Amino acid sequence: MRGTIESIVSALARDGLILRGGFIFADGEEAAFGPTGLPAKSVLLVGQAGAAPWPHFLRWREKQPLALTNLLDTWSRQVIGAVAETVDARAVSPSDRPYLPFQQWAMRAEALKPSPLGILMHLRYGLWHAYRGALLFEDEIALPEAHEAIHLCDACVEKPCLKSCPVEGYSLDGFAHQACLAHVRGANGEPCRSGGCLDRNACPYGTAYRYPAEVQAFHMASFAGL
């Protein structure tokens, strides 16, 4: 590895991104390959807290062709890929095919658990965070071990995240994808289209990091293909 953890943190911060923990793969564990094609020994997760990357993304988007699709994925790949080149790492994305186990990596890196909405619940950020990519290394990167945090969902009795959607998109049985999609695309879907998921917004945790309506509308449009 060239550089240091501090240099990676500094490079990511220029675009509003942060390190989201990491770990060393266990001996004998099947791992994705690193920059030279050998199995990776370490992974560092890259992501965001709140909407910090948004202004950086907007400045980048202004310079892109109108026909460009998957804008946020493309931006994330470019930013994280540029950092990877400076530290002898391979940059990977949650949307890469075949899919890599980002959810499992994230839970392992930060000792988080899923909320009823499937989004990992963070003790500080609540539901207002995301993982944009990861850096895979072919050497071992020493990191502090993640200690299991209080799972805020266990302490939440009212569960407003399961009561705010008009079509009961989320329940203890899982996500009603088609019902949600039809609602967002339909005549009564405007509150969700312009302001984001009502269930997610109902969560009382991490509200200081809640995405602005503009950001939530962008993600909702991507989800609904609008």
Report on the structure:
By secondary structure, the chain is α+β, with helices and mostly antiparallel strands. The chain has 2 domains: 5-150, no CATH class; 156-224, no CATH class. Helix content is 35%, strand content 15%. It is built from 9 helices and 8 strands. It has helices at residues 5-13, 54-61, 71-86, 102-110, 152-155, 177-185, 190-195, 198-202, 213-224; strands at 18-24, 42-49, 90-92, 113-114, 120-121, 129-137, 170-171, 174-175. The strands form 3 sheets. The protein has a 4-stranded antiparallel beta sheet, sandwiched between helices. A two-stranded antiparallel sheet has the order 4-5. The longest helix has 16 residues, at 71-86. The radius of gyration is 18 Å and the shape is globular. It comes from Mesorhizobium waimense.
Gyration radius, in Å: 18 Å
Uncertain residue ranges = none
Number of strands: 8
- Please summarize the sheet with the most strands: 4 strands, antiparallel
Features:
226 residues; alpha+beta; 2 domains; four-stranded antiparallel β-sheet; two-stranded antiparallel sheet; 9 helices; 35% helix
Please give a quick description of this structure.
With 226 residues, the chain is of the alpha+beta class. The chain has helices at residues 5-13, 54-61, 71-86, 102-110, 152-155, 177-185, 190-195, 198-202, 213-224; strands at residues 18-24, 42-49, 90-92, 113-114, 120-121, 129-137, 170-171, 174-175. It is globular, with a radius of gyration of 18 Å.
